[in-house]
Amino acid sequence: MKQLYLLLFLCVSTAALAQEKIDTEAFIKEQEQIRTAEQARARRLSPDNTNGINGTFSVATDNFDIHHSTMEWYVNPAIRYISGKITFDYTIVSATNTITFDLIKSLIVDSVLYHGSKISFVQTDANGVDISFPTTLAKGLKDSVSIFYQGVPDNTGMGSYYNGVHNGTIPVSWTLSEPYGSRDWWPCKNNLLDKTDSIDIYLSCPQEFQGSSNGMIISNTVNGSTRTTHFKHRHPIATYLVAIAISDYEITNDSVIVNNKSYLIQNFTYKGIAANFLSFASYYRNGYRIFTNLFGPYPFADEKYGHTQWGWNGGMEHQTNSFINLPTPNLAAHELAHHWFGDYITCGSWQDTWLNEGFATYATLLFLEYGYPNSYGSTLNSTFRSATTDSSGAVFCSDTSNVARIFSGRITYNKGAYVLHMLRYVMGDSAFYKGIRYYLADPAVKNGFAKTPDLKRNLELAYGKDLGWFFNQWVYGEGYANYKGEWYQKPNNWIKLKLSQSTTHQSVQFYKMPVTVTLKNSTQAKSYVLDHVSSGQEFWLNPEFAVDTIIIDPQQKILAKIKQTIKISAPDLPANGLKIFPNPTSGPLQVAITNPDDAKLSVKVFSSTGQLVYTTSWETPGYDQVFTIPMQQFAHGTYFVEVKNSKSLKVTKKIVH
C-alpha cells in the first residue's frame, strides 16, 4: 500500500509540476557553482592543517560526551568582534581531571566557570583550551562547565566568520564552518565524532538588527538598545552545522502542505527583499514534498525548515536553516536534501564525504525527475559528462590530505550521484528507496554519523542480496566502463550479440552490471536487460522483427562513456551443425547444435543390444545451444546416440562410456 501511495504521489506531482519551467542551462551552471564554492571554502582553511583534514583540525578530547550546549553571543555586525559564553552539559566517558575543547588561539578565553567558581585553564598553540578540574571526575558523571571568551575571529574572508556589508552600507555578519571552521569563532568539539544532543542559542545584537540561527524562535525581545533572540533546537547537531547570522533581517513565515499537514518554513531576508525571495518559494516547497515522499519525513519537521540570506552565491545546509542568496531551483533542492543526507545523518569521516554531497547531488536530480521532468535528462547528462571527464579517483576518498580531492565536483558530487543512480538501476526502485529509508532509520547512524559500510548494510537489507561487488567496483574502485557490441541477425530473426567491455582504470578489471540493450528499426523497438558477467559474453535474443540498430544502455543507467555496436555479417553456416562430445566419455555427454532449422530436438540413447535406455527432447527456438546427456548415470559400455528433428536432421553416433 505504501508503494502504491508513493507511485500515485509521484505521478500526480509530475503532472502538476511539469507545467513549471526551469532554465536547464542555468540550473546546470549553478550546480557546478555550488560544488566549486563548497570546495573553495574548504580549501581556504587548508594551509592551517596542523591536525590533518581527517582529524578535522581537532585537539578536543574524547573523554567527555556533550549532551546540551547553551550558547550566548553578542555580535554587532558593524564590528568584527564576538563575545560569548558557552555552557556545556556533558557526561564523563572516562575518569579524568582535564578535558580539552577546540578554539582558535586568537580568541581570548576570559574565564572558565565550574559549579559557580572559576577554575584553571590553558589556551594552547595547537588551538585548544585545556581545562583542569579541582578533582578527578568519575566515569559516568553528568556535569557542566561554562567558557567565557571574546575577540576578533580570524579574517578568513568568505570563510568561517564573515563581517562586511550588503547593499553597499548595511552591516552583516554570518558564519560558515564546514568542514572545520567552527573553532574560529566558538569553543567546541571540532570533529565528526560527537554531536550535541540539543542546543539553546541566545543571540544578542544592537536592537536595529535581527539574528538568525538553528531551531525555533522561542522569544525575540528588545531590552534598551539590545535585541536578544532565543533559538531552541532539540535534535542532535554536528558542530559544523551550528551557525549564526546578523543583519537587517526581516522574518517571513511561510509553509508547505504535505499529506494535508502544514509545516513551517521560516525565511530571514534582507529588508525589502522578502517578496523577491518568496517568488522562488515553489521550488523549496516542491522539494520538501518530493523528498518527504521519497525518503520519509523531513527530519526536523517538529521545528522548521528555513533560509537565511547572505551575500555568497553558494549555499550551506546549516541545520534547519540553510544560508543561501536566493532559493533558486538547484540551490533550494541541494541544501534541502542535505537535511536528510548531511545533517540528520552526517558523514563519519571526510573519506565518506560522498554520503553528504553525492546524495545531495542525486537528490537534486530526483527533484527534477519527479518535479520538473523536462529538465531532468539534460541535467543527468551533464552529471554523466562531468563524472567521465577523467578516470582517476574513487568515490571513497582514501587521500584526505587534499581538500580539492575531498570536495571534487567530478568524483565526490557527480560520480557519487551516479553511483546512487546505478544502485537504483541494479536494485529497482522499490528496494532502492526502501534501502534509503532503512539507512535513515538505522539506530546505529540516525541522528549521528555514518560511513560507507553503513549505507551498504541497509541497502543489502532491503535488496536481500549482496552488494559488495557493486561497492568494490564503483565506490572503492576508480574509472568507468566502455562497451562494444558485435551482432548479427539470422533469417529467423534471432540475434547473436557479443558484448565486450573495457575499463578505464586498472583498479577494476571488469564492471559486472545488468546491461540494458534496445533492438530497434524505424517502427519497432524491444529492450532486454542482460546479466553481463564477463567481457565477450554472448547472448541470443529474438525481437521477432528485422533489426537495424542496437543501442547499449539507452537511458544512461551505467557510467559508461563509449557504447559502440557493430553489425557484422552472419556466418554462412549449414543448418543443424551438430557435435556430440567427448567421445569416449566417463562423465556427461555434450550435444552442441548450431543454426537449428526446427524448434525441437528429439534424443534417444540405445545400448549396444538396441535397448532404449534414455530419451528426452530439447527446445531449439533458433539459436546455437549446448545440451547435456547424463551418461555418468549409465553402466560402462558402448551406446548409440540418436539426435533428430522433424525436418532434415537425423544423426546417430556411437559412444564409448
Topology of helices and strands:
Elements: H1 2-17, H2 24-43, E1 64-74, E2 82-92, E3 96-102, E4 108-114, E5 117-118, E6 121-123, E7 128-137, E8 142-151, E9 161-166, E10 170-175, E11 198-206, E12 210-213, E13 216-223, E14 226-233, E15 244-247, E16 249-258, E17 261-270, H3 274-278, H4 281-295, E18 305-309, E19 322-324, H5 329-337, E20 346-347, H6 354-371, H7 376-387, H8 403-406, H9 409-427, H10 429-441, E21 449-450, H11 452-463, H12 468-474, E22 481-489, E23 495-503, E24 513-520, E25 525-532, E26 537-541, E27 549-552, E28 560-567, E29 577-581, E30 589-594, E31 600-607, E32 612-619, E33 625-629, E34 638-644, E35 650-656
Parallel strand pairs: 1-11, 17-18, 18-19, 20-21, 22-28
Antiparallel strand pairs: 1-2, 2-8, 3-7, 4-5, 4-8, 6-7, 9-10, 10-15, 11-14, 12-15, 13-14, 16-17, 22-23, 23-26, 24-25, 24-27, 29-30, 30-33, 31-32, 31-34, 34-35
